[in-house]
Amino acid sequence: ESAAVEAAPKKADQAESAAVEAAPEKAAEESASKDDSFSVKLIDKDGNTRVVKAHKGRRANGLIRIVCGMAHIAFEACTDQMKFILNNKKVIHPKDSLAELGLVGNDVVRMMLKTTKPKRL
């Protein structure tokens, strides 16, 4: 009985892999739509870039950690000294939700040094 149960998933996996080989473009589109993943380009303070996959259900914390790692800066120091700009328009914070930020794919997160405003007298 258990052998029959084990054989059924193997056959299903073989059928799926054959379908994936037959239509790789279609399979890639389906997997992207199922898991809500998209590409995000990360740029650190030195201009180094990396393209990573992100998921809508996550927070910006993971992306910011990756950018800080690219710049070889500890996360706490990085978030204190740097700001992170989405598509050259909006400042993002680690606790921001990627879905609420409206990321759809091919977005850019750029790390920049925080500037202090001069105090008025």
Automatic annotation (TrEMBL):
Composition bias, kind Basic and acidic residues: at what positions? 23-36
From the UniProt entry, list the residue stretches annotated as the region Disordered.
1-36
InterPro entries xrefs: Ubiquitin-like_domsf (IPR029071)
Q: Which organism is it from?
A: Alexandrium catenella
Q: Which Gene3D superfamilies is this protein grouped with? A: Phosphatidylinositol 3-kinase Catalytic Subunit, Chain A, domain 1
Q: What is this protein called?
A: Ubiquitin-like domain-containing protein
